[in-house]
UniProtKB/TrEMBL annotation:
Residues 1-22 form the signal peptide. Residues 20-98 form the Cytochrome c domain. It comes from Cupriavidus necator (strain ATCC 17699 / DSM 428 / KCTC 22496 / NCIMB 10442 / H16 / Stanier 337). One of its GO terms (molecular function) is electron transfer activity. The keyword Signal applies. Keywords: Heme, Iron, Metal-binding, Signal. The keyword Lyase does not apply. This is C-type cytochrome.
Length: 499
């Protein structure tokens, strides 16, 4: 007992000495970090450095960046400048929320607005010969770039720098000319794919989930976790139209989980992370005439649902709760109409649909277990559970292919994608672009002939497969490609991909 006591006292003394030896982390931040990351930690030339922004970085990764810097960026190595206890104190401090909750109000949003090209000032035709409907945009997370690919020649057309850490699917205008991008740090950008130029940018929040673009091309809606807001922008030049505080019927604020465009309903849908409500914001009436009020309609739920899939008419939401349960919400009736038998950690957001035996089925991966769950979209029963190599993130198909492609990127088999026959629901093949290296996220060419897979490594690639023979046909080097998005498949709302 005495020995343990002595050890505890020694440990407390060592910690106290170490803490005493370290300089004040706030002062270290002001001296070494504030110039690039902002005095308020909200980001400037460098990204925001708040607990929410660092959530996805493992402790060892943060240490590594502080010690060694970040290659190909302006982030320097501090190992030679700061002592070890200072670096540790700084890392701890960065993970601690500031005393005052960061604000990002309408004034800050407006002040961030940049118009690169006034609406109508660029030519309304593509600068290049490629089919503008069969372009892909590829998010390269390694050095924060985007590559525009010609889907016929399977070759890059252009590559440009993006804001730090884009996340979620880029959204296209209906004619495919413009693509809208969102970064985790709250930047929304509008890019003209025909002129290969940015049109406008604006920072809508400190920590943003994603954006949706209204089918009539008038609005962009962004959902934030910090602050707790929805931000409505004019799609033409991204100027601010309105900030909507996200507060439940009992007054409690909620983070936004994601926003969606329910095109057939002419409305936006917002999934909320902290309250048992779903919001619908109609932007046009049934005949498509604009509704200027854009007032949220609240559907009260009996559980928090924050991961959504929609049927093709957007009448039903399939929603998953954090406890693993699933529900079907009828948006017309504004209530739950069925329970889903899902279990595990379903990732409904990555769901796809197709016809099987004359019925529409939906399938989605599971973040916790190696399986694909297939659900009947008429009576919501689970048709089958297809075992896979391991937990995966994405599932993809196309109207012109008999197969669905699933990754296992959160398992030791992260290097292999499995190919599932959509009728027999059996795994019929697999591809391994590079043994031991993460491969995930598939998108098909416009005609469904080729499947493009991301080899998600710094010296990675887009690996193109013949979707019928599963043979590799091309490898395009890229810097940690994550998602890729085909203009035609997105703008026609293919059932095999996300919308
Ligand atoms: Fe995503 C889309 C949420 C982590 C890559 N991800 C989405 C969407 C949501 C979401 C709500 C749909 C938005 C849209 O398309 O408009 N993602 C989440 C999370 O909650 C989660 C688990 C934790 C988080 O930190 O946010 C998460 N996501 C990741 C990753 O770790 C991934 C693999 C790498 C990364 O870049 O962060 C990742 N998410 C993606 C991609 C899409 C996406 C590539 C677009 C898929 C598509 O094809 O449409």
């Amino acid at each position: 007992m005495k020995t343990v006591l002595r050890w505890l006292v020694g440990l407390a003394f060592a910690c106290a000495t170490q803490a005493a030896m370290a300089a004040d982390p706030a002062a270290l931040y002001s001296q070494h970090c504030a110039a690039c990351h902002g005095a308020d930690r909200l980001g400037a030339m460098g990204p925001a450095l708040l607990p929410e922004s660092l959530e996805r970085l493992r402790a060892s990764e943060l240490d590594q960046v502080l010690h060694a810097g970040r290659a190909a960026t302006q982030m320097p190595a501090f190992a030679g400048t700061l002592a070890e206890p200072d670096l540790q104190a700084l890392a701890r401090w960065l993970r601690t929320a500031p005393a005052a909750t960061p604000q990002w109000n309408a004034q800050a949003i407006r002040a961030s607005h940049i118009v690169h090209h006034a609406p109508g000032s660029l030519p309304a035709r593509p600068l290049f010969g490629a089919d503008p409907q069969n372009l892909f945009v590829v998010v390269e997370a390694g050095s924060h770039h985007m590559t525009v690919l010609d889907g016929d020649r399977l070759a890059p057309v252009h590559r440009f720098a993006t804001r730090f850490a884009l996340h979620g699917g880029p959204k296209f205008s209906r004619d495919g000319r413009y693509v809208y991008l969102a970064s985790r740090d709250g930047w929304v950008s509008k890019y003209d794919l025909w002129n290969l130029a940015y049109v406008a940018e604006i920072r809508v929040g400190v920590n943003t989930r994603n954006i949706a673009v209204s089918d009539d091309g008038r609005w962009v809606l962004a959902g934030n976790t910090l602050p707790r807001t929805l931000v409505l922008l004019n799609a033409e030049d991204l100027s601010l139209a309105r900030v909507i505080d996200v507060k439940g019927r009992n007054g409690e604020a909620s983070r936004v989980s994601a926003v969606y465009d329910a095109a057939p309903r002419h409305s936006f849908i917002a999934a909320l992370k902290d309250i048992a409500e779903v919001w619908e914001i109609p932007y046009a009436d049934a005949a498509g005439a604009p509704l200027p009020a854009l007032a949220p309609r609240v559907v009260v739920l009996d559980d928090v649902l924050d991961d959504f899939f929609f049927d093709q008419p957007y009448r039903h939401i399939l929603g998953a709760s954090r406890k693993g349960g699933g529900q079907v919400i009828d948006l017309q009736q504004g209530r739950k109409v069925a329970a889903l038998s899902l279990g595990g950690m379903p990732h409904l957001g990555s769901g796809i649909t197709w016809q099987r035996d004359g019925r529409e089925v939906m399938a989605s991966p599971d973040l916790g277990q190696g399986r694909i769950t297939v659900i009947d979209m008429q009576d919501w029963h689970t048709v089958a559970t297809v075992p896979t190599n391991g937990p995966g993130f994405f599932l993809r198909s196309h109207e012109n292919t008999p197969y669905a492609w699933a990754d296992a990127m959160m398992s030791p088999r992260r290097d292999t994608l499995q190919v599932i026959d959509k009728q027999s629901l059996r795994v019929v093949g697999s591809v391994t672009p590079s043994a031991g290296r993460t491969a995930a996220h598939v998108e098909f060419t416009r005609d469904g002939r080729y499947a493009l897979v991301s080899l998600m490594e710094r010296d990675g690639a887009i690996v193109v497969y013949d979707a019928a023979t599963l043979q590799e046909v091309r490898r395009l080097p890229m810097d940690k490609p994550i998602g890729k998005y085909n203009v035609f498949n997105k703008t026609t709302r293919s059932a095999g991909t996300s919308h």
